[in-house]
Amino acid sequence: MNKFLIRIAFVMLVLFLSGCSSSVNSVQLVSDQFVSGLEIPEMTSSLGSMDDQSNEQVFSYTFTLVNTNIYDVEIQWVEPVLSSELSDTVTTHDLRTLVDQSLQPGEVLEIAGQFNFSTEGMTKNQILELEPFITEMRIASEASLPLPAVNIQ
User: Residue 131, CB half-sphere, CA atoms under 13 Å: how many?
Assistant: First the structure.
């Protein structure tokens, strides 16, 4: 059993050091860190006009983030990755949502954010053609991995 844990730790270390990437339900790597065991099982969104200004729209979203790891993960911030067509029209300067919260194994966190974009000169159909507005979620996290048990004599 102990050799099995050492092998798993070795494989995880090799994957971490080699910079392998993996997308799990639209979770993207940030700063070459391996974000594993985080899942987004659910997301809701809404689109609406901004304060009687028909040429400015607000896109609001809420998603559920689940830590499926066997260790705690510190979520620093999240940022939506927008479609290329939409990103040219965004008027919000910083899309990041600060989280600064630790997720224990199995814990669920709801995260909400929003951004504004210009629809000047667009019809309703042209606005809807910009979908999907968000293609991925970029997540900055930090985790402390447990080491295999070592006998100290």
Answer: 9
Can you give the pTM of this predicted structure?
Answer: 0.70
Radius of gyration of the chain, Cα coordinates, nearest whole angstrom: 19
Q: Based on the number of CB atoms within 10 Å of its own CB, is 116 exposed (0-12), middle (13-18) or buried (19 or more)?
A: middle
Cα separation, 74 vs 72, in Å, equals: 7
Which one, of 127, 112, 134, 131, lies nearest residue 54 by Cα? 127
Q: According to DSSP H, which parts of 1-65 are helical? A: 2-18
Structure tokens at 17: 């050091």
Contacts 24+ apart (CB under 8 A), 19-23: 23/136
**How far is Cα 62 from Cα 87, in angstroms, rounded to an integer?**
19
First to last CA, the chain: 20
6-33 pLDDT, tens per residue? 554 444 433 443 333 333 344 444 433 4
**What is the fold of 22-143?**
Immunoglobulin-like (2.60.40)
